[in-house]
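Sample A.
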Amino acid sequence: MSRYLRHLPCALFLLCSLAWVFPAVNETIGAMTDASQNMEYVWLVPVLAAAVLWARRKPLLASLGAPNPLAALPLILVAAAFFFLGARGGQSRFIQTAAVLLLLAAPLACYGKSAFKVAWFPIILLAFVMPVGFLDNFTVPLRKASVTVTAVILNGLGIEVHQQGTAIISTGVPPFQLDVADPCSGIRSLVALFVGTAAYGAFMLRGVWRRWALFLSSLPIAFLGNILRLLLTAFTCKLWGQSAGMVLHDNALFIVA
C-alpha cells in the first residue's frame, strides 16, 4: 500500500491544478478549431509529449524521490501570476503558460529534482500549443527575404517578376500576383518543425549537441519550405493562371506555412 501512497501528493497536486489546466485546454481547443489561426498541427503536440514521457518511463520511475515543494514554489508563484494576468486581461497565452508552469512544478514538488530533470522536456513541449499569430507582425523581414529570394530565382528561370514589399508581381503573360500575407510568414511551419525535431531528437538521438543541432535546423528548413511553396505557386500561376495557383496554395498542406 505504501507504494501507492507515495503517489498521493502528486494526485492531489494534479487534482488541484485542474482549475488552471481546464481553461488552458479550452483555449487550446478554441485555437485548434479557429481556421484563421492555421494551427492544425497542435493536436499532435500532447500526443508527442505523452509519447516522450512514456519512452522515459523507466528512468522516470527510477528517479522518483522525496517531495520538494519548496523548490517548486517559485514555479507555482510565477504560474499563479500568469494565470491571474491572463484571467483578468483575457489573455489566453498567459493562461496556457500558467498551466504549463504548473505541470512543470508537479514532478519537482511531488518527487524531487531528479524526477524533474527527467520529466521537464515532455512537459515543456506542451508550450507549443499556444497560438503564434501574435508573432506575425514581427515576421515582415522574414517574408520580404522569402519574396526576394523567390523573385531572383523566378527571374533567373525566365519568369519576369518584380518585388513590391511582400508581394511578387508578374510582368509577363499571363499576369499574376502573389502576396505573402501574415499567415504565410512561415512562423507556423517553424513552430511545427520545432515540435517535430524536438520529439525526434528525444527519441532517436543521443547527445545534447545533436538534439540542439536538429532543433535549430528547423529555422533554415522553414525558410526554404516557404520559398518552395512560393515557387510552386508561381509556376502554377504561370502555367495555368492565378486561380490554379491559389488552388495549389490552399491545398498543398505539406508546404503551406
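Sample B, a different protein:
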Amino acid sequence: MSARKSSAEFRTWIELDAKAVAHNLDAFRALIGTRPKLWAVVKSNAYGHGLTAFSRLAERAGADGFCVDSLVEGLRLRREGVKKPILVLGSTLPGLLPQAARTGITLSVSSPEALLAIIRMSRPPAFHLKIDTGMHRQGFFTRDVPKVIRALRRTPQAARCMTGLFTHFAAAKDPLYPSATEEQFADFTKTIAVFEGAGWKSLVRHAAATGGALMSSKYHLDAVRLGIGLYGCWPSEELAAAFGDRFTLQPVLSWRSVVAETKRLGPNDFVGYDRTERLRRPTLAAVVPVGYWHGFSRSLSGRGEALIRGRRARTLGRVSMDMIVLDATLTGARAGDTVTLLGRDGRDVLTAAETAGASGTSVYEFLTRLNPLIERVVRGSGTTSQLVTSD
C-alpha cells in the first residue's frame, strides 16, 4: 500500500517497527542459543533510532541487557525504568564512578588510569576489564595483564567488583577472511585462561558484536553485543552475501516527511543555492522540509532520492539546512503527500545502506546522524501508533 497520507502533527518523523525489532531479536536468539546473554547495543541514541524508544522495544522483545557508550546514557535508561543490566562501553570520568555504583550500572575499565580510580574507591562499581587484542583503541595489552592482576590482588574490594572480561574485533565483517578475527580470539582466549588461573572463575566473557556473532558460534562465549543487526541492517555487504539467504533481517526504522509545496519549473530554470542544477525539461518540483540539520546529508545534493506515491524522486540542487527540493514530475505529488526518505512506499523501498552509499558514508554514520529531536513513532506495538518523546 502506498504511503499517501502524511502525519497531521509533524513535518518529519521517524517510525520504529516494533514487529521488526522482535523479529531481529528472535533471529539472533535462534542463532546464538539460550545460554549466551543477548545484549542490545543502544549507544549513540540507539544508532539514531532513539535511546529510550528502541530500548523499550528491545526489552519487551526479550533483550537480556543493554550496552551504552556513556554513563549518561545508562542513567537515562535507569530513569526510564530499565532494570536489566547495563554495561557502559566507553570511558567514565572518575567523578561519576559513585553514580554508577549507586545505580547498579557496570562500567568498562580499559586503562591504568581508569583502574587506579576504581582501586582508590572504598565501594567501587562493578566493571568489566577490556583487553586490546588488535583493535588498538581501548584496552589493556595482554602483556600488561600480570600487572593488572597484581594491582587487583592488592585491593580485594576492586577485585570482587571485576565481573567481566571482553575484547572487540576489528575486522569481523568478511567470513572469507577470518584470520585477523581468529588471531584476536586466540589472544583473548589466552587472557581468559590467565585470569581463570589467577582465581577469577566466573567472569562474564564476551567478544562478538553482530559480525562476530554471525561468523562463528565459538565467538558467542557468555554474551554477544548486538548493534547494527538488531536494527535490521548488515554490518557489511560480505556478511549480507554470505548469510542473507538464510538469515533475514528486517529494517526497524523508516523516515518520513511531507510535501510542503509544489511548483512548476521550466527548462533552464535553476534550483537551490549556488545555481548548481539547471533543469533540462519542464519539472514538477516538490519542496520537503528536511535538510542536513535533520540528517539528510549535503553530500546527497543532486543524487539523493525519496519516494512519493511509491515512485522515486531525485534531489534537485543543493541540500539546504532545513529543505530539499525533489523532482516530483513522475509522481504527481501534491502538498500534504507523504515523502519517504527511508523505508517502504508501495512496491519500492529506500534502504539505509543505499542512501548511505549515495552519500559516501557507512550505514552506521548515516543512521546515527539522524537528528535526535525528530519525533519517533512506534508502529506495530498494538492497534494504535504510540508516540514516544524524542531522545
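Observation for Sample B: Residues 1-6 have pLDDT under 50 and may be disordered.
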